[in-house]
Write a structure and sequence with these properties.
Elements lengths: L7 H5 L11 E3 L5 E7 L2 E10 L2 E7 L3 H11 L14 H9 L12 H9 L5 H15 L1 E2 L9 E2 L3 H6 L2 H7 L3 H12 L1 H5 L4 H9 L6 H11 L13 H10 L5 H8 L6 H11 L19
Antiparallel strand pairs: 1-2, 2-3, 3-4, 5-6
Helix pairs in contact: 3-14, 4-8, 4-11, 5-7, 10-11, 12-13, 12-14
Protein name: 3-methyladenine DNA glycosylase/8-oxoguanine DNA glycosylase
GO molecular function, one term: DNA-3-methyladenine glycosylase activity
Keywords: DNA damage, DNA repair
Amino acid sequence: MPGGPLDVGLTLGPHKRGSGDPTWRQTADGAVWRTSRTPDGPSTLRVNVKGGEVLGQAWGPGAGWALEALPGLLGAYDDDAGFVVRHDVLADAVRKNPGLRIGRTGRVMEALVPAVLEQKVVGREAWRAWRWLLHHYGEPAPGPAPEGMRVVPEAVVWRQIPSWHWHRAGAEAVRARTIATAAWHAAKLEAAAGTAELDRLLRALPGIGVWTSAEVRQRALGDPDAVSVGDFHLAKLVGYALTGEKTDDPGMLRLLEPYRGHRHRASVYVWLTGLRPPARGPRMPVRDYRSF
């Protein structure tokens, strides 16, 4: 397990895709429940901290794999050496969040599918599609999981979803085709030897660019430098938090350059500052492709 403080909810939070995510729950006792499709099959994992100790329980064919992967999921291999805070506002966020770790799931497709669904749409639209697809194509979570939890389907299932069900989920043809194409290459993606190779493989696929690759590598491999260039909000937040003025992607990269090797880590702490630029102009609308 990671040395030092550990905030389980904060560390596992990036794997939650909106309220009602069928793969993620946090119960009243503070425990986090998470499902995964491991190389050995579906699993349900329950993680909580009691008396200063991390307790993990798992069920299903993939239970053993899930428990072996638990240290990595909780950031045991997250090395922040070389992360030198250069902005007072980030120093304050680091001080207030000592339990943050960047963990890794080791599972590419379960990070890739929701990332593609989130391309160029607001979160609520993507999360609605994610819930619909998991409800119709996911498996019930093994073990005593909270009601409604599901396990992501196998790659072959993603390839076989008919176009009208993508439409009913609210995902238009471009995102559906991107997911189906990636599913044909799932074995190669899952076997990628490191973040650079995974980035190359992902970006060779149609419909996957810098932003999607970064979002996948952050979660699947715990890449602390995979900054989400192209995010609708991130550049503005980084600029405002670090300079008091919004900026664009090139400006964000200039501001984060001193944190190279840990640019994603720095951007996470930017989010945790709570600083947001004043809202001006229309918000991005929630579209419903089911009515198109």
